[in-house]
Amino acid sequence: MKYFSSLIISLIFVTTLLYAQTNVNGNVSGTWTLTNSPYIATNNLVLQPTDTLIIEPGVDVKFDGNYRFDIFGTFLAVGTESDSITFTRNGSTNWMSLNFADDADDNSLLQYCIIEYGSESGYDPYWGVVNFNLSSPTISNSRISNCSDDGIYLHYSDALVSNNYIRDISSEGIKLNQSQGTITGNTLNSINSSSIYLDDSDSTLISNNTISNNGYYGVCLYSSNDNVDILNNTISNNDSYGIYLQSSSNNVDISNNTISNNGYYGVCLYSSNDNVDILNNTISNNDSYGIYLQSSSNNVDISNNTIFGHASRGIYFSANNYGDIIGNLIYNNSAYGIYLYNVRYGDCEVRNNTIDGHTQYGLYWYSYSSSQYTLDATNNSITNNVTGIYCENGYNYNIVAYNNCWNNSSINYDGDL
Asked: Sorting pLDDT into bands at 50, 70 and 90, what band is 158?
C-alpha cells in the first residue's frame, strides 16, 4: 500500500512537469526557468527600463496570438549549443516581434535562440521579427526562420549580428537603416528579397557570411552607404546580383569574396558610387557580367580579381565611368573580356591583366572625349580572343604599349591606334 501511494504521487509529479506552463502578459521581469516552461504570452509583453529578464536555456516562449515583446530594460536570453531558447507561435497565428527600444540595455543578448513564425511590430521603425532601434544588443548563434517580414532590422544601431542562420524570410534577411552594424559569420538562404540590405548606413562591416539561393540581391547597398567593407563572403546562386550598389555609396571595399552563379551580375555599381575598391575576388559564372558599372562611378579600382564564365562580358563600363583595371585574370566571358564604353571624367589604366578566350574583343575602348579621357593599356597578356585590342577612338592620346597581344584569331590590334 505504501509502495502504491508513492507510485501515485510520482505519477502526479511527472504529469505536472509534463504539462506545466506559465501564462505571461504585460510587464515581465525576473528569471524564466526551464521548470516553468513553456511561457505562453497571452497579450503584448513589456520589459521596463529598470528591469531585467533572464531566460534559461531550454525555455520555450510561445505567443498565443499576434503579440509583440517591447524591450526597454536588460534582456538576457542565452541558451547553449545543445539547449536553445525558442520564441515561436502557440498555434497557427504568427506572433509579432522582439523590439529592443532606445532605452534597452546594449549589453542585452540573444544567443543560441530559435526565433520562428514572427512578423513585425506594426509600427515604425520595428519592421523585423528582431528589431534594434537606437539600441545595440548582440544576436549570435541563433536561427531565425519562417518569418513574414525582415529577419533582423537595425535602425540607428551598431549591433553585432554574428554566426546566425537565417532562412525562409519573406522580406530582407538583415536590414540596416542609418546604422553602423557588424554583420559577420551568418548564413542566409531562402530569403525572398535581399539577404543583407543597407540604406544610409556608413562604416558597416559585412564579412565571412555565406549567402545563397535567395530571391534578389546577395548584398545590397541602396543609397548613401559610405566606408562599408564587404569582405570574405561567399555569395552564390541568388536570383539577381551578387553585390549591388545602387547610388552614392562611396569608399566601399569589396575584397576577397567568392561571387558565383548569381542570376544577373556578380558585382554591379549602378550610379555615382565613387572610390570603390574591388580587389582579390573570385567572380565566376554569373549570368551576364562579372563586374558592371552602369553610370557615373568615378575612380573605381578593379585589381587582382579572377573573373570567368560569364555570358557576355567580364568587366563592363557602360557610360560616364572611369577607373583602373590592374592585375586581373579575365577569361572565357563569352564576347568581351574588358569593355570600356563612353569613359568620362577621368582616365583608365589597364595594366598587367591576363585576358583570354573571348569571342569578340579582349579589350574594347571608347572615350567620351578622346583627347580628354584616355587609355593607358600596358603590360597586358591578351590572347586567344577574336580581336585583341580595339580602340574606337583615341589615336595618339592613348598609350597602348608593351602588351603581349598575340594569337587572336582575327587581329591583334585594331581601330584608332
From this structure: very high
Where do we find the cell 504521487? 9
For the chain, what percent of residues have pLDDT higher than 90? 94
Q: The cell 532605452 sits on which residue?
A: 103
**Smallest Cα–Cα separation from 170: which of 129, 220, 114?**
129
> pTM of the full predicted structure?
0.94
Q: Which residue has the cell 524564466?
A: 32
Q: For residue 198, give the nearest of 218, 227, 222, 166 by alpha carbon.
A: 222
**Residues recorded for the chain:** 417
Sign of the torsion angle spanned by Cα atoms 159, 160, 164, 166 = positive
* Residue 46 to residue 49: CA distance in whole angstroms: 9
Residues 6+ apart with CB under 8 A from 92: none
Q: Which residues pair with 207 in a beta bridge?
A: 184, 231
Strands 277-279 and 300-303: parallel
* Tens-digit pLDDT profile for residues 47-89: 999 999 999 999 999 999 999 999 999 999 999 999 999 999 9
